[in-house]
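COMPLEX REQUEST
Ligand: phosphoric acid mono(formamide)ester
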Amino acid sequence: MTSVPDTSRWTRKDFTAIEPLSVDEIQQIFEVARAFKKTLGRSQKKVPALRGKTVVNLFLEPSTRTRIAFEMAAKLLSAEVISLDMARSSTTKGETLRDTAENVQALNADMLVIRHSAAGSPGYLADRLQIPVINAGDGAHEHPTQAMLDCFTLTEHFGSLKGRRITILGDILFSRVARSNIWAMTKLGAEVTLVGPSTLVPHWFTEFGVKVSHDLRSALADAEAVMLLRIQHERQTSSHFPSLGEYTSMFGLNKTRASWLNPRAIIMHPGPINRGVEIDSDLADSDRSVILDQVTNGIAVRMAVLYLCAGAAPARSLV
Ligand code: CP
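STATUS: Structure written out below.
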């Protein structure tokens, strides 16, 4: 039997951003995720926590990892799951997001998981719906469950993140993963350095309590963990560097640049990877890469977020 930690302190119906979370709330997510991760190691992985509930996944932008992980998480919690993608939804007939979401609620859904290109859309819906709204990525604003699974993976390696030096390399400007991780990592006491071309890593990010660097060698040499981000072409409205080849030649993580890293430093990436662009294949597949651990941890972390927001009873048995 595995018990879920006491979750009576959790009061949030919705999970739309890392920015407003307290350190205690982040730690609660990790505690519950650790308990669920243990259940994933059993032959009987399903737990009855959300039996009788229906989770609707509304993905209005492409996704592989997040969508599958949310579906798996909800099913492992014994919820019914309905997933709807943009091409098959009535948004293609002009229905507004608000109407779509209110209809999902009227159809008796118990929770809504949403990915949308508009920054702030999950928060907008959370204010209007009675059911929990979970953000699976909104424009270049936040991807809060990604940051939670990234930081959860880091805690598995380092214990506490306090004082840990983490470098995030790549297209920071258009990255919701970077924004959520900046909030989460700094709240947890990590020293975060952002590095990349100045057009994609503007100096104003220092306002968030992080260092901004354009010196790749020193940013890598100092890091205990380096997180690569792909170029977010889908959100860039103008060119921010001469060519992809030039970006790779200046900032791509290759064997030579990886030799600048501390030998014990780990390599992270939220996916999807563009092999040979922001990271070479042999590094993505190397022993120091935790990229697939991040993906696996995404299930337990999303189970924890669904469980907490559904308001499941504290300290209940999972068998
Ligand atoms: N990391 C991430 O959000 O991946 P997907 O776009 O495949 O969900």
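REMARKS: The chain has two domains: 23-143+298-312, 144-295. Confidence is low (pLDDT under 50) at residues 312-319.
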